[in-house]
Write a structure and sequence with these properties.
The chain has one helix at residues 135-139; strands spanning 20-24, 30-36, 39-47, 53-62, 77-82, 87-92, 95-100, 106-110. It is mainly beta. It is globular and about 45 Å long. Mean pLDDT is 78; it is low at 1-12.
Length: 141
């Protein structure tokens, strides 16, 4: 289901439905990305001086010249983002693409398919080996 009705303020359309990606914006505020027509739109949650919160349109990126579509009926839509690195995932009938927000670099990362949500795996934590000796060190007595 799309977010609750109170999330949408004037200027943010309900038609975005499930085709949005929540993200952390450059200023650490909550944001989301969505496609309307042939443009990728970035929105950010802002609070005014009176304490009222609303969505502010931050940026639009024209997609029709950078991301291919399979046919004129094919519509791109947002399927995810990579938090902390400024990358948005957009799916079309021609494939799955990434868009780097800082440079505008577009890269095809997968062939066409049905992509509902992309959750990229970024890294993992490995404890310091100095504190946890390996089994080989323990048995080398």
């Amino acid at each position: 289901d799309p977010p609750t009705k109170d999330v949408y303020k004037p200027g943010v359309r309900k038609e975005y439905g499930n085709h949005v990606a929540l993200m952390v914006m450059e200023d650490s505020s909550l944001g989301f990305a969505c496609v309307e027509g042939s443009s990728l739109h970035l929105w950010s949650r802002k609070v005014n001086a009176q304490g009222d919160a609303g969505w502010v349109h931050c940026r639009a990126i024209l997609l029709e010249s950078v991301i291919p579509v399979a046919s004129s009926d094919d519509k791109p839509f947002v399927v995810g983002c990579a938090e902390g690195v400024g990358v948005i995932f957009v799916s079309t009938g021609a494939g799955l693409f990434t868009i780097k927000l800082d440079s505008g670099l577009v890269k095809k990362v997968a062939e066409s398919g049905v992509y509902f949500s992309v959750l990229p795996y970024m890294s993992f934590y490995t404890p310091d080996r100095g504190r946890f000796p390996s089994l080989a060190e323990i048995t080398d007595v």
